[in-house]
Amino acid sequence: MTSLVRVGFVGCGSHAVQNLYPSFRLAVSNPPDTGGAIGELAEGGEVGELVACCDVDEARARRCARDFGIPEVYTDHRELLERSDVDCVVVAMHPRLQPAVAIDCLEAGKHVLIEKPPAETLEDCLAMKEAGERAGRHVMVAFMKRFSHPYLRARALAARPEFGQLAAYEARFTFGVYPPRSVYDFLNGFGCHHLDLARWFMGEVSWVFAARVSLAEGDTAEWRPGRLELPVTGSAWRDMWQAAEGREPPQEEAWACVLGFASGAVGTLQLASLERLNERVVLTGRQAAVHVDGWWRVTSYLPGRDAAEVWEPEHQLPGDALDPRQLHGYAGELRHFVERARDGAAPDVTIDDGIAALRLELALKRSVAERRPVEP
Fold first, then answer.
1. Preceding peptide of 161 cis, ω within 30°
2. Which residue ranges form the domains of the chain, and what is each CATH number?
């Protein structure tokens, strides 16, 4: 395919408008020409164009189309899918709604990029995988941290011969008070980022052992699923949280997890909704380590070096280079998806990775409930 990939987009919520639509300009439809001076920006020029957006809220969809120069607006994704000139679709919705829409896209012959988490249930994830296989189309999951500059740099450092075999993994990922579980499940909606990163850095997980504490009123240290079902309308984060207020407490909890990897390496992972947003990752080799602090600073300790090497984004680079959507992977994941859709090739992160993250989530919950190590 030599012409531009024509992309449709389903979902015009706050995350999509803040992070995903702007990333098309950064990496897909009008990437900056830097003359090769900034290697981390997308190279190769324009590869795709946004031709349509869709949201059940027509006013919101029209605002999105106006703000990002999108020519066509729909309120029913099935009408968008009737267009033969749409090559692929990005779906960014609540995980309860995404699977059915993604399956419709696949059955219409479109490659799909689906927001993380792809679903709340394993059954929905498997249904998307089967639909993609039937249609001969690919499903990519938007684990954007895999495309972020700090984590890409850390992974490259750990792959150096002098780093030695990866032996230990440490991660900490925290967030303030999280909405009630009937709105989003904390481990599913938030923890999935670092369940995926653990696999990406270290390989498959063989077993997990977890403990959980909750400070939420009426909750216990033993995990129990939320019972309150709320309609997904408007902003799931804002509107559903308001609907649940007074009916179900927000999630205030911490998870302490031990991971055993198929390689023989071990890891620890702490996930909490009890403090400000922050994260840290440490990879340990043989007399070597790399630390990523705040999803920003990368510090490496390599054999034979007298001092640590520190990398941070260069503040004097042009604004596009320092755009957090560029640094933190949103632009990179979209560029990757559109390029693979253009070539008809499988993306580097697929629905299988979404399934693996969900299996880890379920294993951690089972470990808490049964107070023992379990296999995913």
1. no
2. 5-144 (3.40.50.720), 166-284+349-370 (3.30.360.10)
At 36 the pLDDT is 46
Give Dmax (Cα) for the chain: 62
Are 134 and 160 spatial neighbours (Cβ–Cβ below 8 Å)?
no
Contact 153, 332 (CB under 8 A): no
Q: Rounded distance, CA 55 to CA 64, Å?
A: 10
Q: How many CB atoms lie within 10 A of CB 245?
A: 12
3-state secondary structure (DSSP) of residue 327? helix
* Best CA proximity match to 199, nearest among 338, 15, 331, 350: 350
Give the pLDDT confidence of 29-59 residue by residue, as tens digits: 877 655 444 445 545 689 999 999 999 999 9
- The DSSP call for residue 272 is E
Using alpha carbons, select from 114, 248, 124 the residue that is nearest to residue 183.
Answer: 248
Q: Which sign, positive or negative, has the C-alpha torsion 274, 280, 283, 288?
A: negative
The bridge status of strand 253-261 relative to strand 297-301 is unpaired
Residue 313 clears pLDDT 70, i.e. is over it: yes
Q: What percent of the chain has pLDDT over 90?
A: 80
Burial class for 316, CB neighbours closer than 10 Å (0-12, 13-18, 19+): exposed
Q: Is 172 helix (H, G, I), strand (E, B) or coil?
A: strand
Average pLDDT over residues 66-75: 97
DSSP strands (E only) in the chain = 5-10, 48-54, 72-74, 88-91, 111-115, 139-142, 168-174, 205-214, 253-261, 266-272, 278-284, 289-293, 297-301, 309-311
pTM of the model as a whole: 0.94
Contacts of 245 (CB under 8 A, 6+ apart): none
Give the separation between CA 303 and CA 333, rounded to whole angstroms.
Answer: 33
* pLDDT classification of 220: cutoffs 50, 70, 90: low
| Residue indicated by tokens 């670092």 | 194
Q: In whole angstroms, what separates CA 224 from the centre of its chain?
A: 25
Amino acid at 200: W
Among 121, 83, 82, 125, residue whose Cα is nearest residue 102: 125
